[in-house]
Amino acid sequence: MSRSTRRRQETSRSSSAVNGDVEEQHNTMSSGPNAEVPSDLRGDRCNIAILFFLYLLQGIPMGLAAAIPMLMQSHGVSYKQQAEFSLVNWPFSLKLLWAPIVDSIYSNRFGRRKSWLIPAQLLIGFFMIFLGANVDSWLGDGKGEKEAEPCVGFLTLMFFILNFLAATQDIAVDGWALTMLKRRNVAYASTCNSVGQSAGYFFGYVVFMALHSPDITNRYLRSVPQPDGLVTISSFLNMWGWIFLTVTILVAILKREQVVHNPEHEPEPDLGFYRAYGLLWDISKLPSIRVLAFILLTAKIGFSACDAVTGLKLVDAGVPKEHLAFLAVLLVPLQIVLPIAISKYTTGSRPLDVYIAAVPYRLFFNLVAGAIVYFTPSLITKGDVPLYYYIGLLLFYTCHQITLYMMFVAIMSFFVRISDPAVGGTYMTLLNTLANMGTTWPSTLSLYIVDSLTFRGCSSPLLSNNDCSSPLEVQDCEAAGGICTVQLDGYYVEMALCTVLGLLWLWWARPRIQALQIKEVREWKVRRQRIR
């Protein structure tokens, strides 16, 4: 049998499964739109492990993208420069632009998802090795350049490319998850996503920051103190680059995609390039999707200042950045257990009840975070941070993580439940893209405007009109014997504004979210004519 004939037959089988009535298509799943089928992991344990590790790799660039701002903060970069670097997270919010290409152009012989997964991960590996050879000088930490300013623009470009490749890998993995797992186990894809990304983020951020710190490594890991940490950003990137290359080669050789449709798995028809974008347009026209899109794009406004600025403010207040990262180590068991524990409450027909329940608590933590930042300078004496401060900070982070994962696992479970498998990874990617965009644009905006909302003044009576808004005015103030002091910190203005907006959003969104999750499955499906 020729390859083209076999491909047409596979497409025909998939299309016939998709083009039937909704009730017929799901007759093995339920007797009603919201009925549940118990999971059975037999035969899927290895697939779950593979998905977990692929999502773990995806979390490494995300963790590194969180570590770089901490390194730049020690060089005195402005919050507007931090906002510029935050653009590196935008590929995960823009991946919808090329998701239909990933979904429709592939080698049938090599595998629909592997056609993009393998090249993307190989490029990530090579790019990490390249970054490892140059990143020290771009950060201003090269030999003889310790006082140099970071090349924020170039760092942003390099890590933007890295995250672009990681986002492409995410598209492929999201689509593969829908067909790699049996239909009754597909909800576990959200658990693999959350646990795997958390583990990868932990290695890319927490482990790196701890091993990069001379203070932590000398105190806990060395008998003879050394001036540097155990790893540098360059050696860490180089190591993970080789890990990416090794794992990718193993997946390419050992893991095969399903070629002949198994009735226990969701069908995945062969969509053409133009039909893929047409389906994307059809999805966006669904009334339910439009409401959900607006909810996702605005859901994180209330938490943006707390999530994006608080950590940097603590570093400015005198808390060592390495200690903040090391403190996060204690949260790792919680971050691994939470998605598993929460998934027990989100695998039913109303996962968004958990999502709604978490919002008021996250808004309350805005006030707690603001109070912590406000009192931190007065609690630090000569650079020494008391133990009780770290205990209180750990308690705050623990409670914050619980609410964060309640929302994340709940929304991911809802995405998996409503995604139309007839569209492959494009539907799931659309939903994830909207959720990511709802996080990235408020975070970037919060970082960008915090300096504009901050009011400073010169203490010298000779320059009462000097607001220290530029380096020249700062120099003039110091030349007159004064110092620039913060009269109103824009961080607190943002926190108050975000909290008010978050409460208004909750009042508006609660009834609409409850209405969305009781809709029948067919209301989330695209028109069958487009799929043929």
From TrEMBL:
It holds the Pfam family Acatn. Its main location: membrane. GO terms for biological process: acetyl-CoA transmembrane transport. It is a multi-pass membrane protein. InterPro entries: AcetylCoA_trans_1-like, AmpG_permease/AT-1, MFS_trans_sf. One of its GO terms (molecular function) is acetyl-CoA transmembrane transporter activity. One of its GO terms (cellular component) is membrane. It is found in: Membrane. The chain crosses the membrane at residues 48-68, 88-106, 115-133, 153-173, 185-211, 231-254, 324-342, 354-375, 387-415, 491-509. Gene3D superfamilies: MFS general substrate transporter like domains. Keywords: Membrane, Transmembrane, Transmembrane helix. Residues 1-38 are annotated as: Disordered. It comes from the Eukaryota. This is Acetyl-coenzyme A transporter 1. It comes from Frankliniella fusca.
